[in-house]
Amino acid sequence: MSKAGRWLLHPHERRPPGVANSEEYTITTTQTHDDLQIRELFADQATAMQAKDAERVLSQYAPDVVKFDLAPPLRQSGADALDANALRSWFARFDGPIYYETKELAVSVGDDVAFCHGLSRLSATPEGSPDQFAGCMK
After folding, report:
1. Separation of alpha carbons 97 and 40, rounded Å
2. What is the pTM of this model?
3. How far is CA 76 from the centre of its chain?
C-alpha cells in the first residue's frame, strides 16, 4: 500500500473530495491515499445500496470474496456472493428507498494489507408492510 507523502495523480485517478485542482497534493500519515480510496469505496457502496444498483454493489467485490450478510444465507463466497439477480430480488422485497450508511469507519493501512471496521445501518420498508425496520451491523 502507499506511504504517506507527496503524490502525483495519474490521469485516470479521481481526486478525493476537497482536493485542489493541482496535479500534486500533500497527504498526511493519518489520511493516506489508500485510506481515502477505501473510504471512497464505502461511500460508493452506500450510494449503490440506496439506488438498489446490484451491479454497482457487487462490482467492488473480488471474484474470491467471502461475504457475510444479514439476510440468509449469512455466509456466501465466490460466484454465489456475486449473484446480481439474487441481490436484485432482495432489493425488490422493499417498498420505496433503502437507506444505508456507515459511521465511525476506522481504516488501517499497511504496506500490503488494509482492514477497516465501522457501524453500518440499513433501514427500509418491507414490501406490503406499513412499518420501516432498521438494522445495524459492525
Report:
1. 22
2. 0.72
3. 17
Q: Chain-centre distance of CA 138, in angstroms? A: 13
Cell numbers at residue 5, please? 507523502
| CA geometry: angle 3, 9, 10, nearest 5 deg | 115
Residue 51's CB: how many other CB atoms inside 10 A?
14
How confident is the model over 77-111, as pLDDT tens digits? 999 999 999 999 999 999 999 999 999 999 998 87
Considering only CA atoms, which of 128, 126, 137 is closest in space to residue 46? 137
What backbone torsions phi and psi does residue 122 show, to the nearest 5 degrees?
Answer: -125, 135
The structural domains of the chain, with segments of one domain joined by +, span 6-137
Cell of 6: 507527496
Cell 493541482 belongs to 22
Task: Return the CATH fold of 6-137.
Answer: Nuclear Transport Factor 2; Chain: A, (3.10.450)
20 pLDDT band, cuts 50/70/90, is low
Q: What Å distances lie between residue 30 and 4, 25, 27, 108, CA to CA?
A: 8, 15, 8, 9
Measured in degrees and rounded to the nearest 5, phi and psi for residue 39 equal -65, -35
